[in-house]
Fold:
Amino acid sequence: MTIADLWDQRISAFLLSPSQFLATTSTESFLAELLHELRNDKTNDQLKVTKTLLVSVLLEHPTILCPSASVGEETALELLSVFSHTPQKSIVLKCNVMLAITNVIICTSCLNTHTKTAEDWLDLLFQMIQDINDYRCGLSQQPIRATACDCLREMETCSPGLLSQKLEALYLLKQQETTVLHQSYCLLYTLGLKNAIRILTNQKDVTDLEFKSILGGNEGFAWKSNQLELTSLPINMLVQVPRLTQGLDCKDLKSIMSLLLEESYLLMPISQSALLRELVEVVAMVPGLSRTLFKSQLLRLFGTADVSLMHATLFMKDTFTDSLFTTEDENFLLKRLVGMAQHPLLRITEKLFYMECILHFPENRPISSSGEESLPVLVTPRLAAFLHPTVFNDSATMLCRLNLLCLVHLEANEGEADKGIGFLFDHIMALLKIVDNDGSREVVVTSLRALFIFLMHFSGMEELSEKLIDKLCDMYSRHSRLAPNLIGLADRIQEHPRPSLVGQVAKRLTIHNLSWHLKVLKRVAKEGQITQRNTIYLLLNVLINSNLCERGNWQVGNAVLAVYRNLLDHPSIDQVFIELADLLQYISIQYDDTDIKDHARIYYTLLTNLSWEKLTGVLAKRLDGGRAKEPAQSSSESVEATGEVRNWLEVYQGQFQTPGFGSEVTLRYNLTHAKETDPLFDKVFTICLHFEPKDSNYAKVTDIHVPCVFRDRKSPEVKVKLKPFQPYPTSLCVSAMFTTQDGRSWHSRLPDVSVSFPEIFLPLPLPPNSSRECREQVFERIWEATASGNSDKSAISLFCFKPEDKSLADLIKTHFQGYLITDQQSERSWKVLLFLPPKCHILLKITQAEDAAQVSIATDNRELLPFLNSNRWLNRCFAGVHLHRSF
Amino acid sequence: MSIRALWVVSHEKGESGKVRFSRRFPTVEFRAKSLAGTQYVAVPEDRVIPQLLLTELGLVDPDKPYVEVRDDCARQHRSPAVELRLDGPGGRTLWPVLTVTQGVLILACLPLVEAPPEPRPPLPSLASVSQGLALLLGLQDFLCGPGGKPEPDVLASRLAALPAVLLQVCPLGRPLDTPPPAGSVPAAVAPSPGGAQKQPAWKAGVHRGRAVVSVALTEKVRSMQYGKSSQQDIWDVYGMVMCKCEVEGVLPNVIVTLTLPHNGSPLQDILVHPCVTSLDASLLTACSVDENDGSAFSGPYKFPFSPPLELFRLCSYTSQVPVPPILGSYKLKAEENHLKVNVVLKLHESVKNSFEYCNAHIPFFNQNLMGNVEVKVSSGQLEVSKEKNLLVWVLGQKFPKSREATLEGTVHFSGTVAGPTDPLCSGLTAYVKLYFRVPDLTLSGCCVDQHSVQVYSSAKPRIVTTRELVSSEYYIWNSTGDAPVSSGLMVL
Structure:
């Protein structure tokens, strides 16, 4: 393999996943290698290609390779030297190096902090663009000049106002350039002009002289002076457009603008649209300029086939409304949009975009200005009829049209709407018919999406939704494979299930494809409003009249039991109590699989022995256990997916956006009998433990259900989940309700449970396989934030002590094993982080000095310090401690 | 007005997606970060992009009948922009990702949102969206070419050329131009040095040599014919004028004029190329979504422009013509194990009876393969496709003198092998599809007179004009079965 191939491979690997690539090598060494190879003086064609490839890494990922401004500056310097050593004829390489330098300088903030390198680079770029019409360097160097213009334009964008004192020079260059590059000069000048004027709008009482001096500026780069925020939004995003003072003399500016508009025709359409947007902003900001400047361009723009030019026209419409566009213009433009949204020669993506433009059409007199999808009043049913969805549309177009038409008919007056909705309904039925004829997976998904859109808009029209649901049920009876799709749909329209989709489906089940049906029935059993008689009769029929029990298939059995599991929870279970019990008993005797039999027997026992409240309690517990894992899983994925060089503190803090993250402490207890009790209580069943916190520092604790406690068996473990608002020590009152063997229910008070301070400690909640580097970084960042004293809640404390009989290392091991961030035995220093829900931290830095150990403590909640100190918890850890200093 | 990243992803059947090309624009990312503040979502690494994209586009796990993240009915893929869910449902999202799919290729880009991230701004309020869209569409033309399906090696070489192309058209994330369509790059023209007149950015140089102007007018006709009084037949026509102008000068002026015959219905929905310098307001007034009041402008349509070097679409239009060129009737009857077929095609008297080709395809879906075919045609020849699921009626260059041709007979489906299926065409829902081309004809009557093309240039150019009519989506549905409704217009 040649060196070039090797680089090729390495760079592909890097570009595919920088984080994985850098896990095997360090950023510094990779950057050094890249730069070394780039400095290689040998020139051949192969090397040129390789070098371009190497530059692309810096071009695309400057912040990964240059994590700090200083590395950025050094790298930019290196690249500058590479640039000057690259031969004239390696045009592509030179251009790429130029882009890389610009990217490095901007992204590592060298530009914003006004470093020498940034300044030199700007000067060099400006010098390059002086060579108008290639007089000096010749035609072959034109791409370099074009790139220089683009680099300057990007620097002006990222540091708005940088060119604001150079406008005259830029204007002259733009005027004199007559090759194709005049586009670049024109865009550069216009951007500079717009930013300069925007800066001026921040100033009160601008004089004619100041205004003039902008256009005539021919000085250096405007570092820092009066610059705009990088985050300045385009004017259509602002509540109020910034404006210059009235009454300024705009004659010069007006002629400049006219000329720019006149020449806009010479630009590429996409650049033309960018230019137009800048000019619109300028006119909007300068009261002395008339909107009618654009009049001469309007017809050309109205007729354009180019999507970016049409979009710029709509921007103009949005900005100037009736001061430039008459009512006829407005009607005309909207009709054009409708025409374009269905034009046979435009592409699907363009048409979808135009439909979005119709939905958000900037009317001269908008009724509401909210960003929601409320339809412009000009979009009438008549007009929209041209966008009626058809079965021949691709799925995106069809759904987009359907949504638009639904909105139109929601707004329309009654007679018209009924007719329109009728047509949409027919369309949905036509789609379902295709599904019924064995439509492909995509057809099924699209049709159900269409149905969902329809139901979301017209769920109030019961007659129609009933018909649709009838059709779905009918379809399901023929195509049981649709079960998951239908269940998904039912879940989504949960708020509008009238009449319930799933209930209707259940009525029509037959024995074929039992496993799908069981899935549907399981879902049906979750519907509180549906009586479950049909389900139970069907299952009874199936089990008694088929050979299902003899076949004893474990999976089928489980699916049947899953239905029961949901049925047991059902609020109207008493109506079918006997049938359900019969069924369970039948399975527990007849089903030819021991596991299924056992399960059925348990359900039977639960059903026949417990009240419904207790039953749901027992079942709810199991359900929670099943769901608890989800958030943990997703958060660890999120950490993995982000890649790049990360700010671990951000990652760590980001986790708290997941509701409930890190908010609980789980305490484990064993539930045992008191020493001496009546033998009646030797076996107690269905115990419900109730907890009552004694203070308001904790959230209400949910009841815990335990199936049984037998004196002669292992005592069951009980997990109490505490949710602190303030992580202070507390105690809980506990009471229990339970049943004895004779069927009587009892209530009893148990001893209070006290929760000590250390019991609330948790280790730093980071995903399980987080690196040590990550844990350390989070520790240090929290420490810095706490030590900076910015928050009035944070505190720092320090104490020293002499470890007596045990060594410090052992003490730490005993008390802080699970909370250690680092363990540098050799340096005799340890870092410990105690996390207390909901989001408090106690950080300890423990060092072994010559004759004493020193513990620095930082916490972001100073209220916690007393518990550390006055409760003598730390003292107890490090027996015989003397508090040295605290502030 | 910038894009943060650009991807070309391929997904071959049975394989997971693969990033074939990607490009990030860090300075735009720098701006995105500062605009979005705490709500900033970084662009994920390339290795996770294909899966995220394919999930949103419904292309993952093709073998599984239902996957919730893919098939959720509440996730509506009905906008040109999708959102990528980086951490699964409920997690961080990357929006708006514009996508264009062609064959196995997915082109995607992420425009910069120059707006507060919450609440999510409407797509049309973002300048970067149409720019990203234009870039993607240009990229599609560049990679796929006019045929739409490049050979793997051709595609590979075009992908390899992408970095150089982007260096010109989008060096720092801000689109300056669209990539040149594949195959349309004009013969090497030396970049012209600066002269007295400014060179248009869309014209790399000037033409030298013989002056030729060719103007080709193509009209396409679509139709849905049902043969029922309850369902009205529909048809429409759309046309486009393609130009190639080899004329000297930096900004030569050319005027092409389209004319309609007396009483011709006006050209509607006219869209013009950006090189058209000015337009008369009356040209644009006719619109297909408007009622025609008969008083509308009906030409002549003048298009003054300064041509680029390459072939380009000067303008396009739609038109409503009073009759379809071929009126058809299709009757299908099911009898025991065979179908009785009857097709009648009538050529309208106003249409020139001189085709380059005219074929009627009669496919049979959801049936076993054809066995015995006893069908007679009054004109032309009948062929049975070798797949045994399609009858091809080759009508040739001319209809008979009566301008009417019939096909009649029975088709047996004796085989045991099942033919192709189509969910639309079940039972007696079936169609005949026509394919034809008539040179030197337009249905709207629109034409470009050779003498009306004006070129203001030193040398007198040779002027070539052509016109043709081509069928597109021309269906005749079986009148004895249910035909799918194709347009809302019809029902109004």
Q: What stands out?
A: Residues 258 and 293 of chain A are 7 Å apart (CA to CA). Residues 507-511, 622-645, 880-887 of chain A have pLDDT under 50 and may be disordered.
